[in-house]
Write a structure and sequence with these properties.
The complex is a heterodimer of chains A (268) and B (369). In chain A, 72% of the residues lie in helices and 0% in strands. Chain A is mainly α. In chain A, helix 6 crosses helix 7. Chain B has a domain of 53 residues. In chain B, 70% of the residues lie in helices and 3% in strands. Chain B is built from 14 helices and 2 strands, in the order ααααααβααβαααααα. In chain B, helix 1 packs across helix 14 and helix 13 crosses helix 14. The longest helix of chain B has 33 residues. The chains are: A mainly alpha (268), B mainly alpha (369). Chain A: It is a multi-pass membrane protein.
Chain lengths: 268, 369
């Protein structure tokens, strides 16, 4: 009896989580003229693949922007994070803990509280409306969380390893290159997944700092869905396109995804 | 020695960047919020606008000014959104975790299903749910598939409000709520025998409650009554947000449940505790720290919610307005930078109110270890 209720509840919950997905796919596969409100749940007949083609043509430049943005910002911030974490974990100096704490504060602020000066600054240095401006912003505001993840990870590496390499005559970068980096793969994976999903999904900076030609896909999608005249097959196909990269990451690297989630869940 | 200098130099760019982008910008934002930037149309067009210091005028206008009634409704919306979003995500997350903890078949699959919305952008979620919540379609016609009459709740399009109160009563309600919370803290302190905490919480609670019922009742923010309430259009937004985030609380709770030692549960069983009693008196108290961290994370998300509402209802729809939306609208559509900056500072204070006590308690724990 208890078992019955357990499965009934899980089934109900599954419906709650998956029905929206079902409706999205359904709508994306419908001919625009056949999308009417009272038949929304009816399976398309015939299946209309054109929506994806049209949506892909419309969203491709934005999708490419998102790819360039997320990949380059992720790569840069992973590099910065690894170096920062290495310094803080293995080369602490007087006051470095305090500086680290001050750095972490940046993780908790709501970005609305810096948005106006940020907008002015990005404009002043001539990067407003460019993808580079957005990349810069993501790398900078990613510093606290990536530094935290790398520092925690490097603290687990025994100091003796670093000490031994130093006695062998290796310098700061030599130790990093030959001792630390070869051990860093797991931390890089966590950071890369975390930053990639965050940056891909981000909206506030993107909508504030880009022009149409440099928009990532989230901004384009929000604006498309906001227009009333548009038939719903396009926003739905667009939503699938916008969701696909992070969903694939989640499905194939779910374990690391969760780890990043638990590590950095308070990030602003 | 050379290496130590190199190490510092490697860290330096990040320090400078965070110094400017976090501390510098907060400082500048604070300054902007104390100026008249946006009052004069000429400032909007000027490359280097001439700004004048006006003190706390922008803040005063937001809370008591005639034109900013929309800000006040956005604050009320934010409070209700935060409460229901947190409650919903915690409740559903806990239920899901408890169900999965019983080891049903296909547990891994269920977990994947419940958690996948976490991987989506709030913009994607918003777009999907905007379609699901069409008044004449989506969820509302779902019952007709089983031959039942459709639902008629207009979701995002409703302008209805419940629990309406007069904005002038805000000081009274705030003092009452904080006072009662402190009273509860005092009661807890009394139970735990912490004399000092008991004294201070009792004293401040007393002061607040006395103030609330004497001066608080007659303190008026506005010269006229201004009704605000829980905007029912938010129900749909809350639903979408819970859909997205309850998998996250489920993951936290599930990890917590799995971490409870079997001996503890055995002991409860030996003591003759029923299943319900075990949950109530053994498991839930052990999960309290998880609830607290989840509340911090969810509260943090809720207070700065922007993209979800942007995608579901747009910038110009007052019934689902929140401060982050209004701030964007003022600053980047209306060139009212000073007032927008003031809202940014208020959000920062609000988040600090949530996060700083948490960080301090975490830090204390670290030290005790």
């Amino acid at each position: 009896m208890g078992r019955f209720f357990l499965y009934a509840f899980l089934l109900l919950a599954t419906l709650f989580f998956l029905l929206p997905v079902y409706l999205v796919i359904l709508t994306a596969l419908k001919e625009p003229a056949k999308i009417t409100l009272d038949t929304v749940w009816r399976w398309p007949d015939p299946v209309y693949w054109e929506s994806f083609k049209i949506a892909w043509d419309a969203f491709r430049p934005k999708f490419q922007n998102s790819v360039v943005l997320a990949l380059s910002a992720t790569a840069l911030s992973a590099l910065v994070g690894a170096l920062n974490g290495y310094v803080l974990a293995k080369w602490p100096f007087r006051g470095s803990n305090l500086l680290f704490a001050l750095m972490l504060f940046g993780m908790f602020i709501p970005y609305q509280s810096i948005l106006i000066p940020l907008f002015q600054f990005v404009k002043a240095i001539g990067l407003y409306g460019t993808l580079w401006g957005l990349i810069l912003v993501h790398v900078v505001y990613g510093i606290p969380i990536v530094t935290l993840i790398f520092k925690n990870y490097y603290s687990e590496i025994p100091d003796e390893l670093v000490e031994a390499a130093r006695i062998d005559g290796a310098g700061f970068f030599g130790i990093f290159r030959h001792v630390i980096l070869p051990l860093s793969a797991p931390a890089f994976v966590v950071v890369a997944i975390w930053q990639f999903t965050q940056i891909w999904n981000e909206f506030l900076f993107a909508v504030t700092l880009t022009r149409p030609e440099s928009q990532p896909i989230t901004v384009a999608l929000a604006q498309l869905a906001g227009g009333e005249a548009v038939k719903w097959n396009l926003p739905m196909a667009g939503a699938i396109l916008a969701a696909l990269p992070t969903l694939l990451v989640y499905i194939f690297l779910g374990r690391y995804f969760l780890r990043g989630l638990l590590a950095g869940s308070v990030k602003g | 020695m050379r290496d130590r200098i190199v190490a510092f130099l490697v860290l330096l760019p990040s320090l400078v960047a965070v110094g400017i982008f976090v501390y510098g910008f907060i400082g500048q934002n604070l300054w902007v919020s104390l100026t008249d930037w946006g009052k004069n149309p000429a400032q909007a067009l000027a490359l280097r606008p001439e700004l004048h210091f006006v003190g706390l005028e922008n803040y005063r206008e937001l809370f008591t000014g005639f034109v900013d009634v929309r800000f006040r409704q956005s604050v009320v919306n934010l409070i209700f959104f935060t409460l229901f979003f947190m409650g919903g995500s915690l409740g559903l997350g806990l239920l899901l975790a408890m169900a999965l903890d019983r080891g049903p078949k296909g547990e891994g699959l269920f977990r994947t299903v419940f958690l996948f919305p976490m991987a989506l952008s709030f913009v994607v979620t918003g777009t999907i749910w905007r379609w699901l919540l069409q008044p004449q379609g989506g969820i509302n016609v779902l019952p007709t598939l089983f031959g039942l009459p459709p639902f008629h709740f207009p979701w995002l399009t409703t302008r209805q409000q419940t629990w309406v109160f007069d904005w002038n009563q805000l000081p009274f309600y705030t003092a009452l709520a904080v006072g009662l919370t402190l009273l509860y803290v005092a009661w807890k302190a009394h139970q735990e025998g912490e004399r000092k905490r008991l004294f201070w919480s009792l004293l401040s609670s007393g002061v607040l409650l006395v103030w609330a019922f004497t001066l608080g009742r007659t303190t008026h923010l506005l010269p006229y009554p201004e009704p605000h309430g829980f905007s029912l259009a938010l129900v749909g937004v809350i639903l979408a947000a819970v859909w997205q985030m309850s998998g996250y609380t489920m993951a936290l709770y599930l990890a917590g449940l799995r971490g409870i030692p079997v001996e503890v549960l055995e002991a409860a069983k030996v003591d003759g505790a029923s299943e319900w009693q075990t949950y109530r008196h053994v498991i839930l108290p052990l999960l309290a720290p998880i609830t607290l961290s989840a509340m911090i994370v969810l509260g943090h998300i809720a207070l700065k919610i922007f993209d979800l509402i942007f995608a579901m209802a747009g910038l110009d729809y007052a019934p689902t307005d929140v401060p982050a939306i209004y701030m964007y609208l003022l600053a980047f559509r209306g060139n009212q930078f000073a007032k927008g900056a003031a809202i940014g500072i208020l959000l920062l204070l609000l988040v600090a109110l949530v996060v700083i006590p948490y960080l301090v308690s975490q830090l204390r724990k670290e030290v005790r270890r």
